[in-house]
Structure formats: structure tokens, C-alpha cells
Write a structure and sequence with these properties.
The chain is of the alpha/beta class. Helices cover 37% and strands 15% of the residues. Mean pLDDT is 90; it is low at 255-260.
Length: 260
């Protein structure tokens, strides 16, 4: 089996996947840029080849904001969502149709297949964006602990991790500014041991935390903005107000490595 056979939507011809990719990026980009003002900072830091993009997660729109803003090439894929059937729900159906999602089952019974699909993305020169925290949260300057998936997949395939900070999406409003800030790529090397994964996760957390440290907290919008903000949000605690009580680490997850 070739890497292409493991890519999302490999059940449709390659030309169709390419057409869907460019068409969906045009349509999503048009919608996002009509609704918001988008500011991309640090585009020159993006690697020219395969890489893992690790972004913070404030709102259901974050993947679509990245989809409309990041360069068309290398081809962009997203890790998730966590679904038994990606064809359930309008948001999921759109991601399924475009062939950009690398989903996984809630019970995590397909981890080996998922790892192979992720590796296939890198093997064909693509980039994979992952919400490192694994959930949305309240607080533009806050950053929850990162799950170890980004570090594990990056080490396993030997690709760099690029921290990508999104700010301005915790409350959405018509023509409000959303900022995407690209951090310095973090190189990887060696085996994906538990120690290496833990250390790389901590390094990524520190880099991402620095990018969101000075983010502005937007004011709550009007009725339309509140509806748009919450229409597809899934708060693990059941509500935004309950989620507001959850806070990430206030400092460095692990001590900085010794200089010697």
C-alpha cells in the first residue's frame, strides 16, 4: 500500500481530491475574509516541506481560519475531529468532503491506522495541523497543557513542529481582527520515546505560550457574534461559563534543559 492510499478520501480519484481541496479553500477563504479581518504574522517561518503545525484552540472556527489563511502549498490536513462517523453534522461533512481531515475514533481503537494515515500525510510532503490542547478553552492568553500527539507524530516522522497561535476567536464579531502568529519551527530527531515526547511537548508548550502571552481579550459581541461564536462550540464542562474556570499551567511545564 502506497502513502497515497492511506490519505483521507483515498476512495476518490486524486484529481477529484485536488479539485475539492482548492475549491473548498477558495469558498472557505472567501467566507472567512468577508466576516473577519485576518492578520498573518511570520509566514516566512513556515517550512517549505512536511511539518506539524500545533495551534491553540479557542473556537470551532479555528481550523477554518487556518484553512483560509495558510499557504495553499504544502497541502494542508487537519488531525481530527474525534468522530465515529465524520459524515455526521454539517461541519464534519464539509471536512469529510474536502478530504483534509484525519479523524480518529472516540474510543481510540484505531490508533495504529491513525498513525499510518498521519505518516502518509508527511510522506507525500503535506503538513498536518493539530489542536495541541485537544479541546477549546476560554482565555486568549491562556494555554492548557498540550497532549502528546503532536510531539509523538512529529518525532515518529522526523518533521519539525511549528507553533501557530490564533488570537481573536474567543469572541467572534463581524469584521473583527483575527491574528495568526507563526512561531519558529522546532526541529525533531531521534526515536519517539516517552522521554523525548514529553520533552518536545514541553518545548512546544513554551513556544506557543510565548506567542499568546500578549493576546488581547476581545469584548463580548452582539447577538449575531454571540450566536456565531457558540453555534458549534463543544464545551467539555457543558457551558462556556463552566469552562471559564479551567486554566492551564501558569509557567513552564518542565525545567529548561541544561546548557551542557
Amino acid at each position: 500500500m502506497t502513502p497515497e492510499d492511506r490519505l483521507p478520501r483515498s476512495d476518490v480519484p486524486g484529481w477529484s481530491r485536488t479539485l475539492r481541496y482548492y475549491a473548498s479553500r477558495f469558498v472557505v477563504g472567501l467566507a472567512v475574509h468577508l466576516l473577519f479581518r485576518i492578520r498573518l504574522e511570520g509566514r516566512d517561518r513556515l517550512p517549505a516541506g512536511a511539518a506539524m503545525y500545533c495551534f491553540n484552540h479557542l473556537n470551532w472556527t479555528d481550523p477554518f481560519v487556518l484553512y483560509s489563511t495558510l499557504p495553499l502549498r504544502p497541502r494542508l490536513y487537519f488531525f481530527g475531529p474525534k468522530e465515529e462517523d465524520l459524515r455526521a453534522g454539517p461541519r464534519n461533512r464539509l471536512m469529510y468532503w474536502t478530504g483534509t481531515a484525519v479523524p480518529y475514533k472516540p474510543a481510540k481503537s484505531d490508533l495504529l491506522d491513525v498513525a499510518r494515515r498521519v505518516a502518509a500525510v508527511f510522506q507525500v510532503g503535506g503538513v498536518l495541523a493539530i489542536a495541541g490542547e485537544g479541546r477549546i478553552h476560554v482565555g486568549e492568553r491562556d494555554l492548557l497543557e498540550l497532549q502528546d500527539g503532536a510531539a509523538y507524530f512529529a518525532l515518529r516522522s522526523g518533521v519539525p513542529i511549528v507553533p501557530v497561535a490564533i488570537s481573536g476567536t474567543s469572541w467572534l464579531g463581524f469584521r473583527r481582527t483575527i491574528r495568526i502568529r507563526i512561531g519558529t519551527p522546532i526541529p525533531t530527531g531521534g526515536r519517539a520515546t516517552s522521554e523525548a515526547v514529553t520533552a518536545l511537548t514541553a518545548t512546544t508548550w513554551r513556544a506557543l505560550k510565548d506567542l499568546v502571552r500578549d493576546a488581547d481579550e476581545p469584548a463580548p459581541p452582539g447577538r449575531f457574534g454571540r450566536w456565531l461564536t457558540e453555534v458549534f462550540n463543544e464545551w467539555p464542562e457543558g457551558s462556556r461559563s463552566a469552562a471559564a474556570e479551567v486554566r492551564g499551567p501558569s509557567g513552564i511545564l518542565l525545567p529548561e534543559p541544561d546548557s551542557d
